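Hey, can you fold this one?
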Amino acid sequence: MKEKLLMVIFLLVLGSILTTALVAVNYYTKPIIEKNEELKLKRNILRALKLDFQEEEIEEVFEENVTVKEKGGRTFFIARTEKVAFLFEGSGLWGPIRGAIAMDTALTTIDGITIIYQEETPGLGSRIAEREYLDKFIGKKFSPELELTGEGKAVEENEIDAITGATLSSDALIRILNNNYREYNEAFKGE
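Sure. Predicted structure:
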């Protein structure tokens, strides 16, 4: 009986020590994690807006070139280069997809796009985050909305090629962009 009581006391003391250590590590690292997330967001906004920067100058370049504005409950990032960016988010095939898209000030033509986070199948659906695929969006228009076509068949100004073997991930990205665009366009134009 005494051995069991000692074991319980030992486990309670050990558990308390480890819990205290975890709380201390969390307290110490939380501001660092938040700062890194902020830098990641700024980095992706700058990339979408096609603004050149060095990694150590992200905050300075962002502050000098981008104005953050709230309109209709939405956040817009307006660049000195007459481009507007906003964040998009939605459900992909296997998990959330988040990114940033930059457009002209009339919000009609895509000028840049980046994927901040995605959980699509590595080597297939994850190709939606590759620069080669994202470059296919540049110059495309949301009129009336983006449409997915078979790979190599996009000819209209609103058509985007699907990724062969990852059509569902491509379709999810197009759906997310169309849904977010409608909401941001209404907020930006005050409709």
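The mean pLDDT is 92. Let me know if you want another pass with a different chain boundary.
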